[in-house]
Recover the amino acids of this structure.
């Protein structure tokens, strides 16, 4: 079991056992972390944050060290909805005292548990998503908690949003080193809307151009093997769409996907980020039907002819290797191919092929 999965199960187990109250969640915990309510209404939970913002940050210089010295600095944020409102992505620039950095937040709503998961990706460590915090809203505020580590010791992380329907919503982050008994607030930021539309943040001059071919809107024809790693030769075909755009100044990109399966339409999101030091792209997939978890990342390289990304996952309980290839790159058409290997990469079974035709 990966450390990320173990942490998620730890948090969810506490919530199920009533431990959410120990994290400082208000009375909303039972409703948001339970199974009641109208799931469709949650597609509008983040309407108030859509668009473009100036952000003022106030961050504690040293965390969990008894410090009271703070840094203040400006930033910018842009938020888009994903998956019909059941997900969001925000792209951020933070002008720290020691220089600019970029990051993104990914959110997704789990329709079964009726709760949101929130992941953060620091552009300076682009091969890793932070473990999620989970929770939801009550009235004009929201609370989200999750397990992580800080300087080698286990902590609980808490996000809170306040005045979300007011003219200046604000957010705070707190850490607890004692299981939620005490909290230290270490970051606050205050949002001032600049436009209700999403105005993309400026690109980085040194950003790679590997994914330029995928930017835009596409119609997709999918062909998927009905049974994987079972010797099957039966395929099913269905349609879909993709909207892809750059984030992290071009060091990342996001894809919002609709897949019209024979069993019904579902939505998913892909998030990619580039690590310049390693020269590798990491790619995560979020299935809107199981939105509490991210698939393990695939990693690899691309050039003007396409590329290959590899990773490890589970299929029906057994370990497999996953390979994704981007092929036949052209201005108005692309092919994508997924394969699994159950023998450590000695042999591969292609189980999904998608052909993309550009809309715009």
């Amino acid at each position: 079991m990966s450390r990320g999965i173990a942490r998620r199960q730890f948090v969810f187990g506490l919530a199920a056992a009533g431990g959410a109250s120990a994290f400082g969640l208000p009375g909303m915990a039972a409703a948001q972390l339970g199974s009641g309510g109208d799931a469709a209404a949650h597609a509008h939970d983040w309407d108030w944050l859509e668009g473009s913002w100036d952000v003022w940050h106030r961050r504690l210089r040293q965390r969990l060290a008894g410090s009271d010295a703070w840094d203040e600095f400006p930033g910018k944020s842009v938020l888009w909805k994903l998956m019909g409102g059941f997900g969001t992505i925000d792209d951020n620039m933070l002008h720290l005292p020691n220089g600019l950095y970029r990051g993104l937040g990914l959110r997704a709503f789990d329709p079964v548990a009726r709760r949101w998961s929130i992941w953060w990706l620091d552009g300076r460590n682009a091969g890793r998503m932070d473990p999620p915090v989970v929770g939801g809203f009550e009235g004009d505020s929201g609370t989200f908690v999750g397990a992580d580590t800080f300087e080698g010791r286990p902590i609980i992380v808490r996000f809170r949003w306040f005045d979300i329907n007011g003219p200046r919503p604000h957010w705070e982050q707190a850490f607890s080193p004692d299981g939620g008994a005490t909290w230290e607030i270490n970051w606050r930021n205050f949002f001032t809307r600049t436009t209700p539309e999403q105005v993309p943040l400026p690109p980085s001059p040194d950003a790679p151009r590997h994914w330029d071919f995928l930017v835009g809107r596409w119609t997709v024809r999918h062909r998927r093997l009905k049974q994987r790693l079972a010797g099957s030769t039966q395929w099913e075909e269905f349609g879909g769409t993709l909207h892809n755009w750059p984030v992290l100044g071009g060091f990342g990109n996001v894809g919002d996907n609709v897949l019209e399966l024979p069993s019904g339409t579902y939505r998913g999101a892909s998030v990619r980020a580039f690590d310049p030091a390693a020269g590798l792209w990491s790619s995560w997939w979020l299935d809107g039907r199981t939105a509490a978890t991210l698939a393990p990342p695939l990693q690899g390289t691309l050039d003007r002819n396409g590329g290959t990304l590899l990773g490890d996952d589970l299929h029906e309980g057994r370990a497999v290797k996953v390979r994704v290839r981007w092929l036949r790159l052209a201005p108005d058409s692309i092919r994508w191919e997924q394969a699994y290997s159950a023998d450590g990469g000695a042999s591969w079974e292609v189980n999904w092929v998608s052909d993309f035709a550009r809309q715009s």
Q: What stands out?
A: The first strand starts at residue 51 and ends at 60. The chain has two helices and 20 strands. The longest helix spans residues 3-16. Residues 221 and 239 are 5 Å apart (CA to CA).
